[in-house]
Give the backbone structure.
Amino acid sequence: MTRRGSSGQKISKVCLAYSGGLDTSVILRWLIEEYGCDVVAYCSDVGQEEELSGLPEKAKATGAVDCIVNDLREEFARDFVMPAIRGNAIYEGVYLLGTSLARPLIAKDHAKVARETGCDAVAHGATGKGNDQVRFELTYQALAPELEVIAPWREWDLVSRPDCIAYAEKYGIPISATLKKPYSIDRNLLHCSYEGGILEDPWNAPEEEMFQLTVSPEDAPEVPAEIVIGFEQGTAVSIDGEALSPAELLIRLNALAGSHGVGRVDLVENRFVGMKSRGVYETPGGTVLHVAHRAMESITLDREVMHERDRMSPRFAEVIYNGFWYAPEGELLRRFVDDTQVNVTGDVRVKLYKGNVIVTGRRSPVSLYDEATVSFDEEGGYDQSDATGFIRLQGLRIRGRGKA
């Protein structure tokens, strides 16, 4: 019996978010077999690089009527990565949100392509245990609520990746995953992530040959690299004086920082759906940008503005992680962050050495740092005797408590 959409209507044409990996390759064929529909494969280029080679041919060989690949690299870096850097958005103090930031953009363009190709529904390969299903579907609901959503991992009887591998073999679908090495890889301009398989045991150390963007810090060069990153209103715009687009800048930083072992993270995070998950991440360029941006803010942001932004940063990260980029609170927080960044302009010098990012200098034409005021060698317009009354006022409640 042919499946129908959640509304009970026959699905004639589905636009599938397709990567060419194990899950979506199987899903493509499964949609054809189970729904009896045409499938348009859709892939967004957010920096996967070699993973896109031969993708349209593979999709059509698996049964797709068309395969559309859109280059979103500049939009991803400009409109998603850079706002997160400006907002110091780091989930649970560690994760730099590489996957989380890509999903709303992919889903937005996915919905656009679905409409343009006359599809009744969209489908994705996110599992029922993960965060991506939420990120994709909240975006569809915000931007294209009329489209049906098919989430095969919540419908089919394939309960594991070994099941998917067996299904692919049954239909002659070429895949790269194997039963021996089944962990999942997600790569884009900002990061490369690894999860599943042998990594599901949080005691297992990741295999060195797994990493794609970084060398081991132990094997990094003995001589450090020093670079200057230029910022304009909180956004990185240049390296060593050379103006670069957001995507070009990330690519350059990834290569340089990765060669010095910068950006590896191994963590157990709290998924939005309620479980803990172990992930290993490489974010070389993003790590450098976060450190440099923070240094830039240190001389250009007013103290109280910085502290208010810092109070909001964990919430901003949480909103991104949980998939609410296009929700009212996501839009509000981005506006708030951008308002704080008006004067975050200047240069930061950093040294890259064996996995470390070390700030060695910062300068700005709108710096709030006054060397004369802070100097121990001159008065600089600061009357030190004023501190007496300041301290007594601060201690008023403390002295009263001591007398009680």
In short: The first helix runs from residue 22 to 35. The mean pLDDT is 93. The longest strand covers residues 38-45. The chain is about 40% helix and 20% strand.
